[in-house]
Design goal:
By secondary structure, this protein is of the alpha+beta class. Helix content is 38%, strand content 10%. It is globular and about 45 Å long. The structure holds a DNA duplex.
Length: 307
DNA sequence: AAAATTTGACCCGT
DNA sequence: ACGGGTCAAATTTT
């Protein structure tokens, strides 16, 4: 019987926290995998020509929507929890600011002060707590939507800039969806050479634009333009309150082996997709917009070169 | 010419 | 005050 007492409440908390965090990670991973699967499956179905493509696309959308909602719900729970046990958490995790975000209700802080500034326009700024979904993927551009880049920023302590996108139909249809994409730091050291470039994608808001006006023929390579050079890297998709990092992998036991195995399967999968697309393009020559469904562009190791 | 991206300034939450 | 999200003029691409 040593010091296993006073910390009992906090350790329990950590346990819960750990478990829910693990659950969140798994769910985010699921999202990443589904996203990647979609990038592989949809192009194939499209090329096979089928009215099924739309159905399948819808199903993918639904699946992703489900997990996004589940993630959001779980996050809310975590948030509540952390508020209730604020004191404990705050004292226990002083040095982990990113993990516990305390929500201060009042915070009058800096009001008054009505200086006469140029007052360009009232900008709504996204808040960190807003519902969002984050995930990591090698195919940040394929998500079935069209995006318009509206900014790029160099983020502290990161090697690659973050790109900001809003729905192409923001104007016409007032769609509020946005997303950010940022290439992940290549985690070297492992023996894995051709490790796929991964992008962190965070999705904010729901799409309210109607897909009807944007069928496959219209969907352009939302990213074929000029990326990759000076620093226009992109990321993929997500939408949650905090940054959940996911790595493509499958269920398992041994962490290390898991990573390796999953990465390999991931690469294989993507290679297959690349081959598929290339083959089809060569064969039909008219490529029915394969590119729009196979965002294997800049930086990544895809064999396909759209142009 | 129109549409999309780049880029630096602007602004706001922390 | 700082960091990062957004705006909008300039530039590039289509």
């Amino acid at each position: 019987m040593k010091h296993i007492k006073k910390s009992s409440s906090s350790s329990r908390l950590f346990c819960d926290d750990d478990r829910s965090a693990a659950a969140l990670r798994e769910m985010a991973r699921e999202q990443s995998l589904v996203t990647q699967l979609r990038a592989v499956v949809l192009p194939a179905i499209q090329l096979a020509g089928g009215e099924r493509a739309e159905v399948v696309a819808q199903m993918f959308e639904s699946i992703l929507d489900c997990s996004a909602k589940a993630i959001a719900a779980l996050k809310l729970l975590r948030l509540d929890h952390s508020q209730v046990d604020d004191e404990v958490l705050l004292t226990a995790m002083v040095d982990d600011k990113t993990r516990v975000r305390k929500i201060v209700p009042g915070d009058g802080g800096k009001d008054g002060d009505d200086n006469a500034k140029p007052l360009r326009r009232q900008r709504k700024r996204r808040r960190l707590g807003d519902d969002s979904v984050a995930l990591e993927t090698p195919v940040p551009h394929y998500d079935g939507h069209q995006w318009r880049k509206y900014g790029q920023k160099i983020i502290n302590h990161t090697k690659h800039p973050r790109s900001y996108y809003k729905c192409t139909y923001k104007q016409e249809q007032d769609c509020k969806a946005t997303k950010t994409v940022q290439q992940q730091q290549q985690q070297q050291d492992g023996g894995i050479e051709d490790e796929p470039v991964m992008y962190a994608v965070v999705y904010y808001g729901q799409h309210t634009c109607k897909p009807g006006q944007t069928d496959a023929a219209v969907v352009q390579t939302a990213s074929s333009g000029r990326f990759g050079e000076g620093g226009g890297e992109e990321l993929a998709r997500s939408n949650s309150c905090s940054n959940i990092s996911v790595t493509c992998s499958s269920v398992v036991v041994d962490n290390h082996q898991l990573m390796t195995a999953s990465l390999e399967s991931c690469c294989n999968l993507l290679d297959m997709a690349g081959d598929m697309a290339t083959a089809e393009v060569n064969q039909y020559d008219q490529l029915f917009d394969v590119a729009s469904f196979s965002p294997f562009d800049s930086g990544t190791a895809w064999a396909m070169d759209v142009n």
